[in-house]
Automatic annotation (TrEMBL):
This is Putative beta-lactamase-inhibitor-like PepSY-like domain-containing protein. Gene3D superfamilies: 3.10.450.360. Keywords: Signal. The keyword Signal applies. InterPro entries: PepSY-like (IPR021533).
Length: 286
């Protein structure tokens, strides 16, 4: 009995640093989940939804909810105003007949074992607009189609980047990221996501519906490329980075006439992942 007690005591002692490291982020998630601005916004739009987790994003907050026996992602801005909501991997049988008819008439077929369809709700004045995002798993490149509920297509549908991207967007990409190759352009609730190949790596550039730059994500970058000031702050706060399990992204965004930068570090931990955000000087972003 004493031997077992000693083992449990040692286990708790060894676990203590991990529990300490998780504390701030768990508290942040707890505070976000219980923030009355967030809870009231969720309840007013989706009565009965259960908040599972809240993550801070560049644009505000991503609220993961459980609603009608499915997971739903609601996005809010920094002022807690609703941006859009994603109902991912919905059943093909729940897609409106008008969308299915247009999809079929356009010459496409849907394979539920390989393809996906999402329902996206977003504000349109005082109304709630809806679009359906259909992703077809095809070779050599996936096809992404966007339909309104009446069956009409959104701009940005298809698989040919040159046909999707307006000239002003191509010019903006060439000016901001010389030498970048365009892989694909997808329609989002806020505008467009443009996948680029730049410096032997993939980057995701986001623009609004007026083709104004919002931000660019450079995902899964090498830990050795993170600024020393960020690494020092990260280490001094008691964290360690495991390149086999953890991820770090560099995000660029407009900051007046300049380009702002921050680093988003996601640590694969139990029972919940840790997400840390730093400015290049090592200071924490709120």
């Amino acid at each position: 009995m004493r031997k077992n007690i000693w083992k449990w005591g040692l286990f708790i002692l060894l676990l203590a640093p991990v529990m300490t490291a998780c504390k701030d982020d768990d508290e942040d998630d707890y505070n976000f989940r219980n923030d009355p601005h967030i809870t009231q916004t969720v309840e007013s739009r989706y009565p009965g939804a259960q908040i599972v987790e809240v993550e801070r994003t560049y644009q505000g907050y991503e609220v993961q909810m459980w609603l009608n026996n499915g997971e739903v992602d609601m996005h809010l801005d920094l002022n807690y105003q609703w941006l859009y909501t994603e109902f991912e991997d919905i059943a093909w049988t729940s897609v409106p007949e008008a969308v299915v008819n247009s999809f079929t008439q356009d010459g496409f077929t849907f394979n539920p074992r390989e393809d996906d369809v999402d329902r996206i709700e977003y504000p349109n004045g005082t109304e709630t607009a809806v679009q359906y995002r259909i992703e077809l798993d095809r070779e050599p490149t996936d096809i992404i189609l966007y339909y309104n509920a009446d069956g009409s297509q959104h701009p940005g549908s298809g698989s040919d980047p040159s046909a999707q991207i307006p000239q002003e967007v191509r010019q903006m990409i060439a000016a901001k990221y010389p030498g970048a190759n365009i892989i694909e352009m997808d329609r989002t609730a806020q505008g467009y996501e443009i996948q680029l190949w730049l410096n032997n790596a993939e980057a995701d550039m986001h623009v609004d519906t007026n083709y104004q730059w919002l931000f660019t994500e450079f995902e899964d970058m090498a830990w050795t490329s993170v600024p020393e000031a960020v690494v020092n702050s990260f280490t001094q706060e008691g964290y360690t980075f495991n390149p086999r399990e953890d991820d770090v992204d560099r995000i660029e965004y407009p900051n007046g006439a300049e380009t702002g930068v921050y680093y988003r570090i996601e640590l694969d931990r139990e029972p919940i992942d840790l997400i840390l955000v730093y400015n290049p000087d090592g200071s924490k972003r709120s």
